[in-house]
DNA mismatch repair protein S5 domain-containing protein (marine sediment metagenome), 615 residues
Amino acid sequence: MADIIRLLPDHVANQIAAGEVVQRPSSVVKELMENAIDAGATEIQLIIKDGGKTLIQVVDNGKGMSGTDARLSFERHATSKIQKAEDLFNLHTKGFRGEALASIAAIAHVEMLTKTEDDDIGTKIKIEGSKIVTQEVVVAPKGTSMLVKNLFFNIPARRNFLKSDQVEYRHIADEFHRISLAHPQVAFNFYNNGSDVFQLPGNDFRKRIVQIFGRKTDEKLVPVEEETQVVKISGYIQKPEFAKKSRGEQFFFANNRFIKSPYLHHAILGAFEGVIRPGTHPGYFLNLEVDPATIDINIHPTKTEVKFDDEHTLYAMLKSTVKHSLGQFNVVPALDFEQDQNLDTPYSYKNRQVGVPQVVVDSSFNPFETTQPSKGNSSGSYSKPKVDGWESLYSGLETSGDTNASHLEFESEVVNSSIFDGEKEAVDHTTTTFQLRKKYIITTIKSGMVVINQSRAHQRVLYENFLKNITIKEAVSQQLLFPLMLSFSPSEIHILKEIKENLCTVGFVFGELTEEGVEIKGVPVLVAESEVQMIMEQLISDFQQEVPGDSFSQSDMLAKTLAKTLSVKTGESLDEFSQVKLVNDLFACKETTLSPFNKKVYITITENDIERKFI
Ligand code: ADP
Ligand code: MG
């Protein structure tokens, strides 16, 4: 048989390698920005268009390249950063593989403009799908500009695999955060589709964190500092009371490189144990400086996972250092988890300033109009403490509800639920309810009883209600007497802008929206003013975690988040009226058996079940 093995041509090998190096536009951003850092730049500009799909440009004022180097930089395994295998154990640069530029040039249209300090003139190279199109001598400032257009132009399958511009933008923004946090002394500018996202002058680490995550972050930070022979730990943790429901601001940097380490993350969780509420996540920005010989960054192609020689010592040290900071700055709140939480001030209000309560007068409220408990709108609030009385919850809804109250009593014909449809039964007319362990509402049906999870039931009711409001765009909002100013970080503002339209449909009224914050002039009737900040933060973090693809899933997510945040929780006691209303509202829902998060809402226990227990 004839020999059949052949060496792949370079451009094919490069395209294959590109699959490893360039997964999406943000990978290009990472490689180009890291090259700029390695070139010693003190100022770096990132310019992107359409989530980086059409254009990514990185301009730096670093050391630049000679004409020959510029040409060579696009070859595979061409690097100025290491020469021999031992150098791998003494890395001081971000790059070392010499693969990035070759890979990028294999799958995009690339233009490089570069000049060194010593040269009078610079070089411009155009390269498309690994083929050099032109190389010219041009006038250029010192430094390098890399322009990458039409990513994956020659691999349609990869291009089609890319997510929406917004999703790709988020990945790029994440990458930008990581690199700019790892190098606070470098100035960064970031432009997206022609508008400024960040203008970050060179700064210290704390100021850089605040530049990126917004002014309100400053008060949350507690310094962490420890130096031993093995490691120098520095940076900040966030005070425990600011722990969030979602994992967001958690950053480890090892020798100025963003890394992921579930193991070391665990050490931080250990340090925070007992001082944050279960289910919340601490924020941290920590730098670990170790001898480059004791760290292996070679184990993962995209290089966010690393291996430390002595991870156990590092773990112990991190944990005790963070604990020490928590103690030293006296930020450990005296929390008693055993205490009945109902007697406690809600956690998020603990350290808030006491303010004069605002009186919201509902001018349209007519005390002579009969407002029956079960008015047919399924949006009630169940005994949750509110600033204003429950009557105002119905303000503005007078005309929309059915005023024939008798129609809404718990009768079989009006109740749309599988229990009743399936078994052709009705809930007892008297509708007796009972709350068990501040968690379940128990009510009777003819064949026995239903045990309802109060929180999930309320989530279902609120979810359907919000979804309806979004769809018919007829939400009722209450105007705030004094508009609220809430401050957010630039990337949070970016997300707010994306979801603003949908927020309006559920009843939020926005005033000015600037780079630093937003003015809220009105809120949905169910939302108390004091909850607005918390709700907005929750919404933003939910959207940060999971980017909805289309407008339907955006509405769905919004309704889910609002339902989750505003629902009564386990541990809240409900009075009888609220219990009955919740039961009525639940069984008026389109879907009654599952919560919006696909959890079982209730179980039924028949008389037979009970009788069997007595045998
Ligand atoms: P690596 O960074 O792993 O060395 P790259 O393919 O990213 O590999 O870059 C190849 C080489 O091109 C680098 O080693 C460096 O010498 C040069 N280079 C790339 N980008 C720049 C830049 N912005 N400024 C100066 N030199 C650069
Ligand atoms: Mg590189």
About this structure: The domain at 10-200 is CATH 3.30.565.10 (Heat Shock Protein 90). Residues 334-352, 371-380, 383-429 have pLDDT under 50 and may be disordered. The longest strand covers residues 477-487.
